[in-house]
Amino acid sequence: MKFGGTSVATLPRWQNILELVASRRAEGARVLVVVSALTGITDALKQLCTQTATDLRLLSAQAIARRHHDLLADMQLDLPDTLATRLHDLDGLAAHGTGDLAWQAQVQAHGELMSSALGAAFLSANGLTTEWLDARECLEAVTLPNQNERTRLLSAIVDSQPDPALAAHLAARGDVFITQGFIAREGVDPDDASNKGGRTVLLGRGGSDTSASYFGAVLKALRVEIWTDVAGMFTANPRQVPGARLLRRLDYEEAQEIATTGAKVLHPRCLSPLRLPRVPLLIKDTNRPDLAGTRIGPELREEAPSIKAISTRKGITLVSMESVGMWQQVGFLADVFNQFKQHGLSVDLIGSAETNVTVSLDPTENLLDSDVLAALATDLAKVCRVKVIAPCAAVTMVGRGMRSMLHRLNPVMAEFGQHRVHMISQSSNNLNLTFVVDENVVDGMLPQLHEQLVRAGAMRTDDADLFGPTWEGIYGAETAPHDEAWWINDRAKLMQLAEQHSPRYVYHLGTIRERARALLTKLPVDRLFYAIKANSHPAILRALAEEGLGLECVSPGELARVAETVPASTPRLFTPNFAPRSDYRDALEAGVMVTLDSLHPMEHWVETFDGHDISLRIDLGRGSGHHDKVRTGGSTSKFGLPLDQLDAFVHLATARHARIVGLHAHLGSGVLEAGHWAEVYAQLASLAERIPSVEFLNIGGGLGVPSHPGEQPLDLDAVGAALAEVKQLYPRYQLWMEPGRFLVAEAGVLLAKVTQLKGKGSWRYLGVDAGMHNLIRPALYDAWHEIVNLTRFNEPATAMYQVVGPICESGDVLGSDRRLPESHEGDVVLIATTGAYGQVMSSPYNLRGPAEEIILD
Ligand code: LLP
To answer: Does the reported pTM lie above 0.85?
Structure first.
């Protein structure tokens, strides 16, 4: 069992270790604990090594000793002899600093020597008799031909042949041992009779994990457990992809590949010692020992080929070498690679053509400063034409049998098609496929790529044996958006409503009013309209009119709904698109502010706008939003007047005696970037300066709400602050907005009941009585709506379902790969955030009829 620096730095952490070791003892296992130095101590020791003045080194040693004394005091222990000896030795080393590499190694080894001595005392004092073991007695470094004094002493490699004699010796001595990570004993150099070995050496990067593996191999352990602060390896970096899944099982090669190409949880070096003796390695979370973690072992179970992980590495440098006039010349590659060797550079990826070879250099393997690269380029220039391309990033997909999965990678290829790909490389062991792209695009790509892999069935997350819970599911529970959702408290009532009838949409008016008030207080708007297309339920229109909002409509039907629902004094807008002439005429006659968005009406409907005030929707040339289908900008979108027709429109409007009193722009729906609206506002304002009649600027809607758990909500204060800045610059224009989704989405839920369950291979389908005829968003936009089993709200989510409806379409899927409690016929299921664009987009398809709508006030 290996514990890192933070895990051994405090008393509570040691109590945790005590419990974990005791639990292994209770299972009948004998335990060897491998520890790192207390956090910060290795750095302090390195610092000590750089000090040339003896008194400064002694002061450093005292400070280091104090850290250990303090922890001893917390543990209420007296100074044990083992630790006293180490502290005394360290003092001696500080007093007689020779500065050479052997001395440095000895000084730095004290971090682990001291923490393990402290640990032995603590465990023994708390009922677990523990022997302190000097790792240098057990682990011997090998001497390799290409080593120099530095690599031999500070970056040693250990001979990890199983040593039954050592195992037997330890078995005779006790049941629980504690030893040091990171250190070993120097071996005898067969080529140098003067070197008898025996000095203290360090293992270099990944040192403590590697020590644990060496011990595991030498002792042929039952398993090696690496205790750290995450549950294991994930399908992607969870910081970038919160939906990344825990990998429950990996074989050594895959794990090594993932560790090499990005995952930081394990140093790739620590897997190779375990391969030959076939000792499994387990990664476990110290704070959550209940989680199964990742098990890395030799076994190769029969399983569908699947991509296991996608990772990115930044700081990659590509060196492209063009062999002018050396086509097919024997020895060209040898010449080129010799240069890399001369400059001490290790090459990672290789791509070759008849006249070009391109290789990548990984910064974690090489010291890539500009001097090294310049020197390399100069030397290479003697044999070829050189181009250095940097900074790049490598995106790697890892999975055994990569070549058999290519047909599933279409969407992934499409994603790369949007960027410049400098190089593609497929590893010859069939374990990875790597794309090299510009560094600045890579962060944005990863979440999409991960999602595409899941959706395309290339990453078989349906295999619950392989893929565990998501990172956000494990660690993000406190921040799940539904923690504050109204429906948590109203659960009992919702259950009742669904029992009476399903499917049912339920809308919570309190939430809608609250959202309206938030917008009115936080945004410096002069008029706020509600885009009723999002949800035109009469009770919602009434509530929002009462809150002082106007209503924005896009059809005669919506105008009629408004006319029959709210007082005539409620301000109304009409913003149709490609509507017939009569729609505009009727709206103008009813006294509604009409927005035009093309030249055609002005050109051809000669008298319609005579003497009227109108507003003009402009296409600012770009769109934004949660999905391609809701982005409204640029030539590929049918909305808005293109900027190059603005002068023509103004000219025609003047001729038709129509007054352009407002400019309008709406770039799309589901935007979560706070700065978006201020940009639109500033652009419209500068255009308005060309049209003296303009009085208001309508910057549309589009305010997004989070869908996935863990997604950050829109920062309304930031939206407001950015708008206020623009307003100060252009005080003469009124600011209007017309959001839809933001006001109603989270106020609505769709309730359904489980109809049937079905298993197909490893896929489990959960059928419910709501489908794409009620909620089209998942099918149309791949929208993600949280799905909850209300009947089993507090049960653990142990099953993985495809949640589907009753419609005769394969696309009738409300949620893919959803982790829910084991569910049964009749259970009530809630589909969240469905107050916007839910019922209003429903269809009579299959004649299943619409869901009922209920208002909670
Ligand atoms: N103003 C105009 C001119 C619009 O076209 C829209 C929405 C809005 C305001 C309100 O946008 P909101 O604040 O709701 O994002 N069915 C899609 C959304 C389509 C939005 C259409 N126009 C969905 O379910 O995501």
So the answer is: no
